[in-house]
# Entry
Amino acid sequence: METLDACGLLCPLPVIRTQDRMRALPPGSLLEVLATDPGVLEDIPAWCRVHGHEVVEAKENNDVVRVVVRKVHQSGANEEGR
# Structure
């Protein structure tokens, strides 16, 4: 599992960084996103619904949000510009 440390970044940067990292991963991969912006608990799952990826876990612990995302399919042209 790869880890993306987005601590200290505010919306929309954690989502943008997540999208960039997910593009580089093969289908089936897991990405752990760590962030201090509590909005990530809603933003990353919403992004996953739009792009067809799976949220494996989403929780906040001691002001750090942890979201684990499974890449379901290969990124395609439909993700460009979103």
